[in-house]
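Record type: ASSEMBLY
Status: queued
Input:
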Amino acid sequence: MSTIEILRVENLSKIYGKGETAVKALDDVSFTVTKGEFIAVVGPSGSGKSTLLHILGGVDRPTSGRVIIEGTDIYKLDETKLAIFRRRQIGLIYQFYNLIPVLNVKENMTLPLLLDGRTPDEAELTKIVNTLGLSDRLDYLPNQLSGGQQQRVSIGRALISNPAIMLADEPTGNLDSKNSSEIIELLKVFNKKLKQTLIIITHDERIALQADRVMTMKDGRIITDEVIRS
Amino acid sequence: MLRNKEIKIYIAIMTLVLITGTWVSYHIDPLAGLITFLSLLCIIIISLIFTNWRYKKIAQLSQYLKRISAGDYTLDVRDNDEGELSILKSEIYKVTVMLSEQANILKKDKLFLADSISDISHQLKTPITSMFVMNDLLQDENLPQDKRIEFTKNISSQLERLQWLVSSLLKLSKIDAGTIEFKKENVNVRKLIDRAVEHLLIPMELKNQTLEVTGNENDSFIGDMNWSSEAITNIVKNCIEHTPDGGKISISHSETSIYTMIEIWDNGAGIHKEDLPYIFNRFYKGKNAHNDSIGIGLAMAKSIIEKQNGIIEVSSKLGQGTKFTIKFYKSVV
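Status: finished
Output:
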């Protein structure tokens, strides 16, 4: 495994609310991730998994602590720069896909590039589309696709800008078991073949066991962090 | 900046526009001529200042690239702004990360090579030493005939081992170096398995083990029949070795739109948890390894599978058995 550090999390805390009603969603979390790792974060609901992922993805600010992605302390950036950083370096996959309903598959997938004012590289796009099995669906709108297909589009969208890190929040939470295993397989293909660093949140132990490293969270803390294969 | 050809043309055209504009408006009114001249001049100067700034940024980037080519990967040029220059910086940074990763891998490969060579020489030394001893003994003229036969037999088995070792190492190095052309033909999984286990049926019978193959007979993938069968043989061989007499080896296969999967499992000794991450490493011998095991078979299987756009994984429970999962992916990313 490579030794390049892609992500470093230092003493991350997130407190919602104030005073009596304050809730500690994240409590002094620290870890590092090297390039090409596939990490699963598991834990009961309310354990802080999603908060962690949102903070890693630059969508929610921590109360204290630092998130350093490829050497950039992302919460030192102002909002605009952070948005641009996210677009170029972070790929996010959500449980409910979050596709734009009025854009077709191709437009949804290339959105991060279009926002950057770039033209997608056709050859690269074709490769990704073929791997995702979406080559005959490029002109479809999201509501014309099955859940599994929509999630595949969102994987494509997360991948198109060749991000430093891909984050997935319960990517299979809304899918049946056949589609779930397909989605996980695809994520694995990109992880193994493109050395795409990947962090995935899941409830499903079978999915977690596919990862190289499993972190368990409880009450806002990481209680175990185990490398299960290398 | 001025040495750039397009800048010269740019300035020439702007000067031309300046002169014509001033001349035309001067003929309308001399004051208008002056105003036109001054405002056009301002625009030209401003545009030259900005062009100059852009060129400086480009020069900075080439300076940056120069430092990268000198091996300094720690710099970060990204500024996370909108616009082409910032995108360029961000893309350059991504290439930098990739290059530095490759440099790391290369360094590791070198270390690995050094380790491998010492492992290989160690592996070769053992049979050679034992043959030296036998040879010395054979030189004794008073050696009884039956001992002589025993020693020569021993020597030939050592020679076989050497031959096998050398040819496997050669194969492995060829696979790793990418000098072997893997065919891209349609491989029927059932046929592949039949072929892979062909020579293993006798050793299995000797150990009174049973083999069960399940799966759709039409399952297939795109790959190389010969090499894939070698990989499967190595894995099944490993299962046979680590499963006691009377045990069972099972193979099942299936095909989805993303991959073709072959699962091979036994109900044998299993692999220690500490060994599990390393069993595909060359020359790695786990706690349960046989004495004459070298640690090449699984490494070779892994190389072969990965060269064909596949992955292999292993899971194991001590005392319950080991399961190898192979997946050949349909499309190449």
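Annotation: Chain B is about 60% helix and 15% strand.
Annotation: The two ends of chain B are 42 Å apart (CA to CA).
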